[in-house]
Amino acid sequence: MEPVHIIGAGLAGSEAAWQIARAGVPAVLHEMRPAVATFAHKTGDCAEMVCSNSFRSDDDRMNAVGQLHWEMRAAGGLIMAMADRHRLPAGGALAVDREAFSAGVTSALRDEPLVRIVPGEITELPAEGNWIVATGPLTSDALAAAIRAGTGTASLAFFDAIAPIVHADTIDMSVAWEQSRYDKGETEAERRAYINCPMTRPQYEAFIDALLAADKTEFREGEAASAPDPTPYFDGCLPIEVMAERGRETLRHGPMKPVGLTNAHKPGEKPYAVVQLRRDNALGTLYNIVGFQTKMKYGAQTAVFRMIPGLENAGFARLGGIHRNSFLNSPTLLDERMRLRARPNLRFAGQVTGVEGYVESAAMGLLAGRMAAAQAKGADLAPPPFTTAMGALVNHITGGAEARTFQPMNVNFGLFPPLEDSRGGRKGRKDRYPAYTQRAKDDFSTWLAAQ
After folding, report:
1. Is 450 inside any structural domain?
2. Are 36 and 140 in contact (CB under 8 A)?
3. What residue numbers does the annotated binding site cover?
4. Are 39 and 131 in contact (CB under 8 A)?
5. Per UniProt, where does FAD bind (predicted)?
6. CA 292 to chain centre
7. Among the three residues 324, 357, 373, which one is the final residue of a domain in this structure?
């Protein structure tokens, strides 16, 4: 049997290779790292997480992301299996020890007899064979040029940012305290999964002033020229300076909102704003500053972030950064099987298709892998119904979205078809959301059982 080739061993490519092998089809996984590096990646391991260590909400009853988690687990997904194995306390979210997670994915793929990992850069789009392109937002310049030539149109681009990571032993716990918002979580560790740094109104105002005045990075060579004006940031991952520029209270109603938290040191004093840090590794020695993606220069980051109460002496394991994130105008280029219409031997998967987020990227790899494996066996696999989280995503990127204004999208209930009146009607979210997720579970289970 001819193998399926996958370009890129990120979350999408790794999941695709796993699904192909599980279907009894050989998979060849091509990865250019570490021989050809990117500025964001630090290793040559598979499924390296660079921006955050969170897969977001794990609530499969009330949250579309949690429902996507459920579907990936039901489909035997490698990414979710390793996320569960290397899970860290994070309240209602699914956060992982990113190094252990990536090492686990790499080990599982190396131990799978039907998966062969081949180092080296692919610089052209293959004309023959069964291929999946899962190169992500940091596709190499050579392959990006080949994709542009092969699609007959320029890929779109927006800018993505990375949050800083702090050494836990440099956080002043006489000021900060441990608590998940609304004490969410089933265990004591989950209810204390976040470190919270409180701000008074004067401290918040001074922080905003410093944030707005701080030196910002310039775009790398070739980035600014390729980007429209204004810079098309993805709204789900905005630099905090951009949020602050939209209004002085924006951060206080976003990542710095003080609701659902009580200062353990001063229970009767309500903070005006709160900065949260989430555990980044199993040892609990590293914490990332939640929602604090930034494009400030390194010196400015250190000065501004040390204005946060509790972080006056913070030591940084990694400072934030910004990079270009490229993706296809998928509604015009891909069919519902995720194939390039002009060259149907090529499927695309992951963030390059215009989904946003680790889970969404891996889910598109899961689907592409199953579809490619079916093709290798002489069959055809339709996508899941778009009443499911996976189906809603693939429907959105392959035709449901408006091509003229297409932008990266996280999974959300707005992508799901409306509920029938008998089940949804004018009911509130507490009734609608469980109806969405139960319908999705039923329909996804039926789709899986038919394979």
Report:
1. no
2. yes
3. 8-13
4. no
5. 8-13
6. 15
7. 324
The CATH number linked to 104 is 3.50.50.60
Single residue among 274, 303, 324 that ends a domain in this structure: 324
Q: What would the DSSP string read from start to end of 176-194? A: -EE--GGG-SSSHHHHT-E
102: CB partners within 8 A, 6+ apart: 43, 45, 46, 47, 48, 49
Strands 273-279 and 156-162: unpaired
Interhelix angle 78-85/64-74, rounded to 10 degrees, is 110
Judge if 123 and 243 occupy the same domain: no
The total domain count for the chain is: 2
Binding-site residues for FAD, in ranges, read 8-13
Same domain, 24 and 136: yes
* pLDDT by 10-residue block (mean), the chain, 451 residues: 95 98 98 68 80 92 97 98 96 93 97 96 93 85 84 68 87 97 91 96 98 81 43 73 94 96 96 94 86 91 97 90 80 95 95 91 98 97 97 92 80 88 59 95 98 93
pTM of the model: 0.78
C-alpha span between 148 and 144 (Å, rounded): 6
In a domain, 57, yes or no: yes
